Amino acid sequence: MTMTTTDDALITALGRLGAVRAPASLMPRVLDAAGVAARFASIDTELGLLHVAWTAQGIRAIRRDVDALTFVQWYGERFGVTPQRVESPPAAMARSIERALHGEGRSSLRFDLRGLTPFEQDVLQTALRIPRGEVRPYSWIARRIGRPLAVRAVGTALANNPIPFLIPCHRVVRADGHLGEYGAGGTSAKRAVLAWEGMDAAALERLARGGVRFLGSDTTRVFCYPTCRHARRITAPHRVSFASTSAARTAGYRACKDCGPVSMAA
Question: Known catalytic residue: 169?
């Protein structure tokens, strides 16, 4: 094949491009256009200092009790992109975060869950349905997503939740009623966050040690998880304890429609 003068000129021009340094602003613009550029800011909340990262798609990550450098390193390892630090998040986002932490207006928040499997996304989206100050077992989530035997996988997905506190993995506990582990600081941190939300974790664990998984009302003949808002209204004279859903149903009780109690034996 014969090279022409035009071909030679084109090759020379392309070669020169390799020697031209791209402007520093190019990569951020490319990442923005691709929707993966991340920014982060530190927010002082009642839970402590939170580092919050977001993209054009929504909030992508939160860490607590780490310094900014550690957060940047962790984010880069997790998502393959270095987040850019800014002074503060958009005002509307900051307000929505504050409301969500207090159990208000969670639907106004958007989350960027790209990179997670469909199963992991289902788990996290289901955890969002647990009300503030209440807890559900891992088996509850497994049932809700149509994977009743995937309890261990549910636990793994929650342990790897990149957006704790806002996606409340701390509200998911073991089937025996004990709190279990917590990817955002361990059991003690889980207990502290639940206490901040108004839940008596110590009382829940006392029930767990006594084999109590559900509470029923002998007036309504409905049984619930102990932290359900309906269960908390049952007065002592009318409170009935159950070790399993089958025991409650055998006694003539029906499951609460709000908390939807299930157990491995249900």
Answer: yes
Amino acid 151 reads V
CA–CA dist 214, 245 (Å, integer)? 8
Q: What is the Cα–Cα distance from 27 to 221, expressed in whole angstroms?
A: 62
CA atoms within 13 A on the CB side of 72: 12
pLDDT in tens, 165-186: 999 999 999 989 899 989 888 9
Q: Output the pTM of the full model.
A: 0.84
Tokens matching residue 253: 């009780």
Same fold, 116-210 and 212-266: no
Secondary structure, 3-state, 50-108: EEEEEECCEEEEEEECCCHHHHHHHHHHHHCCCCEECCCCCHHHHHHHHHHHCCCCHHH
Residue with tokens 């939160």: 62
Residue 114 token pair: 């790209």
Q: Which two tokens stand for residue 221?
A: 């003949």
34-108, CATH topology level: Double Stranded RNA Binding Domain (3.30.160)
In the chain, where are the structural domains located?
Answer: 34-108, 116-210, 212-266
> Kindly report the CA angle at 243 between 207 and 186, in degrees rounded to 5?
45
Q: Please provide the CATH number assigned to the domain covering 116-210.
A: 1.10.10.10
CA–CA separation, 36 vs 25, rounded Å? 15
Tell me the pLDDT band of 11, cut-offs 50, 70 and 90: low
216 SS3 class:
strand
- The architecture of the domain spanning 212-266 is 3-Layer(aba) Sandwich (3.40)
| Pairwise pLDDT comparison (182 vs 119), residue with the higher score | 119
13-22, 185-194, 246-255 — which is least confidently predicted?
A: 13-22
pLDDT of residue 65: 85
